[in-house]
Amino acid sequence: MITYDRLFIGGSWVESGDPELLDITSPHDRSVIGRAAQAQPADVDRALAAARASFEAGGWRTTPPAQRIAVLRRFNALREREAEKIAHLISLENGSAGWFTRAGQPGLTRQADAYLKAAEEFGWEEALVPSDPASPVRSVVRREAIGVVAAVIPWNSPFSSATTKIIPALLAGNSVVLKVSPENSLSMGFLAELLERVGLPEGVISVLPADRETSEYLVSHREVDKIAFTGSTRAGRRIASIAGERLKRVSLELGGKSAAIVLPDADIEKAVAGLKFGSLLNNGESCIAQTRILAPRGRYEEVVAAVKELVESLKVGDPGDPDTFIGPMIRPDQQERVRGYIRLGIEEGARLVTGGPQIPEGLEKGNYVTPTVFADVDNSMRIAQEEIFGPVLVVIAYDDEDDAVRIANDSEYGLSGGVWSADEDRALAVARRVRTGTVTVNGAPIAFDGPFGGFKASGIGREYGAVGLGAYTEYKTITV
């Protein structure tokens, strides 16, 4: 049993305003695996007061960038040393299969390294070349911290979502209140322990597990200068309205319904092997999952058969079992939500290729769903338009490249996607036409030094690398 009976506020562990601890349950069998304090509005007030005081005092924001980089480099090294424990905690509380949580650890290092490299090369203060060389006026452009950042993250990939925000925010000199999901109280409690050990000044960082009501209290608070949010599009719209009303800076990384375009010349075996990870990572509970598989009519049944074979080959079960590829959904309500979409797909007239709404045999005590594939799907169906957030794939036929691009773009979302082809130039040409923030070719990994974010209802702003670092700064021009 893991217990966090205090909250990490401003660098210290303090008692919560609510002494009652929340039971953290296992998605695998719904047993209690831990207990943790949850933040209340009064705790948010304390965290923001500490953040504001630290920012106004200037101890962190006026620290030279090289020293801030050194502190975050220590944090990254410390996290690397604890990678196995982090992976275990996330599997335990999220139900994410062990292969996924372990494979994600090197990605956290690459993500952090990209931010650190960007900070080393960042134009913190640059002299402008005057347009008129004879002018006696010269200008200096500075990039300064915004102030107090409220970073709000979802439950599905807690460490990645947290470090995506707190590393650039801290590198830029901001003070941060990180609001995490109650389900992640254990892994995020451990994150707070790591942050406590790296030598940040008092008040600069707080980590608060809290419910949605407390989260809204946080983002609405007058002491917050910027909101950085990852989560559902519905919640993002609400946060954007709050930010707009109060003129807070805001960045939003929201939902997705990404398409994988399998071109006629693609090696189907290789494409489907890649989609094992591109479409079903993290039990399908991933905003970048390519859950719409677009196949040419001439090879449609070949693709459907290959996807069916793949999905039926994957072991579903205990996330602690090294042979498990797909674990349980995080909560019972998420389990029922995904099963409801499977029933809806059947009602909409899609062909059930494999899977279904039944709970896998022998796994009735947990939040499990049966991985499911639908064929003969029209892109207007709800199972093709709405983010299901579970291991449910739809295979959609297209006539030619123009039709494939049209279908891929026929979505309110625009976060990610993929193209598969034996001809790299052809794949690139198609990728350029897909209106999403990220497109991978032949299963290439996402580049952490390039900007990440979405078109349309998939968000506002970008994360990762220099662009992501810049999102936590304000421009100041000084003219002499």
UniProtKB/TrEMBL annotation:
Query: InterPro entries annotated for this entry?
Result: Ald_DH/histidinol_DH, Ald_DH_C, Ald_DH_CS_CYS, Ald_DH_CS_GLU, Ald_DH_N, Aldehyde_DH_dom
Keywords in alphabetical order? Oxidoreductase
Mention one GO molecular function: aldehyde dehydrogenase (NAD+) activity
Aldehyde dehydrogenase domain residues = 13-478
- What SUPFAM superfamilies does the record point to? ALDH-like (SSF53720)
As recorded in UniProt, its EC number(s) are 1.2.1.3
**Pfam families named in the record:** Aldedh
Catalytic activity annotation: an aldehyde + NAD(+) + H2O = a carboxylate + NADH + 2 H(+)
Q: State the active site.
A: 253
In the record, the note on similarity to other proteins reads:
Belongs to the aldehyde dehydrogenase family.
Q: What is this protein called?
A: aldehyde dehydrogenase (NAD(+))
- Per the UniProt record, the source organism is Streptomyces collinus
Q: Identify the taxonomic lineage of the organism of origin.
A: Bacteria, Bacillati, Actinomycetota, Actinomycetes, Kitasatosporales
